[in-house]
Amino acid sequence: MSFVLPVAHALVARKDLPIPAWLFAWGASIVLIVSFFALSAAWRKPKFEQERWHPVGARLSRALLSVPVQILCGAVGVLLLGFSIYAALHGTEAPDRNFALTFVFVTAWLGLPLFSVIIGDVFRPFNPWRAIGRAIGGGFSAIAGQRPAHLTYPERLGRWPAAIGLLAVVWLEVVYGSSGGVAVGLSPDSLGLAALLYSLYTLAMMAFFGVEKWCQTGEIFSVYFGMFSQLGSFGTKDGRLGRRLPLSAATHWATVPGSAAVVIASIASTSFDGAQEGAFKGGIKQVFEWLSEAGLSLTTSLRVTDTIFMALCFVGVGLVYLIGVRGMATVRGAPPLRKLRTGFAHTLIPIAFAYLVAHYFSLFVFQEQAQFTYLLSDPLGTATTDLFGTASSGIDFKLLSANAIWYVQVGALVIGHVVGLTLAHDRATAYWPDYRQAARSQYWMLAVMVAFTCFGLYLLSVANA
Q: Between the ranges 201-210, 398-407, 413-422, where is the mean pLDDT highest?
């Protein structure tokens, strides 16, 4: 994230790694190739098509999903949203001293995907817009004696609003938050205004199409965090909490139109954020100079340039995936191209998660120290409050060594791509009854995974050079 990335990059910058970056790329590719042949030899039937659902105790499930608990969780979410907006509008304009920016773009945006994978869709009960929408709907039903009528949601639209919104969130912080050729970070008041506008937009869409329907398809954060929760073991089904086979829920997530665009947008936005000060720096500088010479202001030139490169990232990631899908379509016995395009989109979710971990691991560790010390004690950054006696605390940048960060980054990328390759092979065995044809189809997905792995390692090595 732009308001803290310059600090994080400076801390982990290094010119000499214990092992050259290109050797890591070769090693990662070899791991993927070995994994591919191991899967081809030993994995001949699908294992993730069935969730193998095991509900938890009825009493525990009723307690955790009870109305009072839902009201409490929703109230906490609304309180955090309201306080974040208040801090953004009335607190200091210094991005690194205002509670709202770190809470929204680090604690929530980066932390909730991790918790979603580990313990399930934790955002759903705390979703402030869902809580407000349900409260308004309940009040309407109590007064009118009937449920509010909603418009029929266009099924072909699917999750496209969430995919576009995901890019818009990253654009707001990374692109709009840049000015004068230097990334200075989004100003808190801009975040507060954006949160208010998004709240109005979301509540209006919930009024039109229904709270749950909009959360499933168009509400950015519900769709985004819910996507990562499909990788984990815990979830709800038919109003009951339970456990399932890890990764199995992901196999059915992408059946909704626009789902592939959501996960591609996640990979692309992370790639752009990590590459704008590294791999893309030269190209961005050149286009920026062209636009400046054409008469645009410095701020406009930078924002237009970053928008172009962000869009190119989305198109590039999408093309790599579509090339893999098109290649699979040439294998004998392949399903229709449309089925392949949607049927393999879930295999990119582990890669999206791996990119998040690799690019933001150190940022999250460092900024959470700030979040739960001086930002929590002095949330408005006015230097006049010290609620918990930690307002004078700082960040321990020695908590993680540069080498430790690099190894975590590489490990996350390799593991994420191996998991993605495993999901792809499992789906192939479901689409091709002949396991040999299934294995042959996955030569293309192996190429996709190797491409994403090398690209991810390249971005990291250039950013940290």
A: 201-210
Q: What is the DSSP secondary-structure string of 133-197?
A: HHHHHHHHHHHHSSPPP-PPP-TTTTTHHHHHHHHHHHIIIIITTEETTEE----HHHHHHHHHH
User: Any idea which residue has 């604690």 for tokens?
Assistant: 107
State the total domains in the chain. Answer: 1
Task: Give yes or no for a contact between 91 and 100, defined as CB atoms under 8 angstroms apart.
Answer: yes
The model's confidence at residue 237, banded by pLDDT at 50, 70 and 90, is confident
Query: What is the span of the domain harbouring residue 93?
Result: 5-463
Going from the C-alpha of 132 to that of each of 81, 89, 140, 142, 224, the distances in angstroms are 11, 21, 12, 15, 19
Contact 409, 460 (CB under 8 A): yes
The distance from CA 103 to its chain's CA centroid, rounded to whole angstroms, is 16
* CA atoms of 38 and 35, how far apart (whole Å): 5
- Whole-number Å distance between alpha carbons of 70 and 57: 18
* Phi, psi for residue 20 in degrees, rounded to 5: -55, 145
Q: What span, in angstroms and rounded, lies between the C-alpha atoms of 214 and 124? A: 12
Please choose, from the candidates 276, 306, 286, the residue with its C-alpha nearest in 3D space to the C-alpha of residue 462.
276
Q: Is 211 exposed, middle or buried (0-12, 13-18, 19+ CB in 10 A)?
A: buried
The token duo for 302 is 């930078």
Q: Which two tokens stand for residue 343?
A: 């049927």
Instruction: Tell me how crowded residue 321 is: count the other CB atoms within 10 A of its CB.
Output: 24
Q: Which of 104, 265, 124 is nearest to 186 (CA)?
A: 104
CA atoms in the 13 A half-sphere facing the CB of 296: 18
259 and 447 Cβ atoms separated by less than 8 Å: no
Q: Collapsing DSSP states into helix, strand and coil, what is residue 246? A: coil
Q: What angle do CA 401, 403, 407 make, to 5 degrees?
A: 120
Question: pTM score, two decimals?
Answer: 0.91
